[in-house]
Structures are given as structure tokens and as C-alpha cells.
Amino acid sequence: MKEPVRKLGLIGAGLWAMTEERVNELVKDLVDKGDISKEEGKKVVQDLVEESKKQRVDLEKKISDKIQDTISKADVFTRKDMHELESRLETLEGEVQKMKNKEKMFFK
Predict the structure, then answer these.
(1) How far apart are CA 22 and CA 36, in angstroms?
(2) Out of 9, 57, 68, 84, which residue is the most buried by the measure of CB atoms under 10 Å away?
(3) Could you list the residue ranges forming a coiled coil in this record (predicted)?
(4) Could you tell me the residue ranges of all domains in the chain?
């Protein structure tokens, strides 16, 4: 399950990088033509980078939430479940040992 999520992240990162590169080219063309100033161009690129970061964080959260939702619906045995089961097993082993000790004392 990790590999598809990793690939999805790489695809998203690749699209983001292509978009930023394309915007840089477009802004450079606009600056070269004199349609916008260099400062305005920098602001456009900066705004795009900030918005892309926000969208990436939002996408990562949505993916994480969806994965957690899918895992909970799939009834998968999690690490937390394993630790809880180990704890219960240790408790039971302790109780069995106490019973054995009482049995030894009773039949002596």
C-alpha cells in the first residue's frame, strides 16, 4: 500500500514542479515584454509557491485521512492492536502463573 501512495506523491510533486517552471517562464516573458514589473513577477511566483505548499499540505492530509479511513474499514490488525493484545497476554500469563503457584501450595 505504501508504493501507490509514494507514486501519487511523486506525481503530485512532478506536476507542481512543472507548473512552477511554466509560471516562471510565463512571468519572465511578461517581464521581458514590459507587461509587468520584475517585482510584480516575483510576487506572482512567490504567491504560487505559497499556494502550492498550502495545496500540498491539504492534499497530504486528505490522503492520510483517506488511508486511515480505509484501514479502519478494512479491519486491519494495527500495531496498536498488537500492543494491546501483548498487554492482555502478559496479564493472562501472570494470572496463570499465580494459579500455578497456588496449586503448588495447595497440593504440597
Answers:
(1) 17
(2) 9
(3) 42-102
(4) 2-76, 77-108
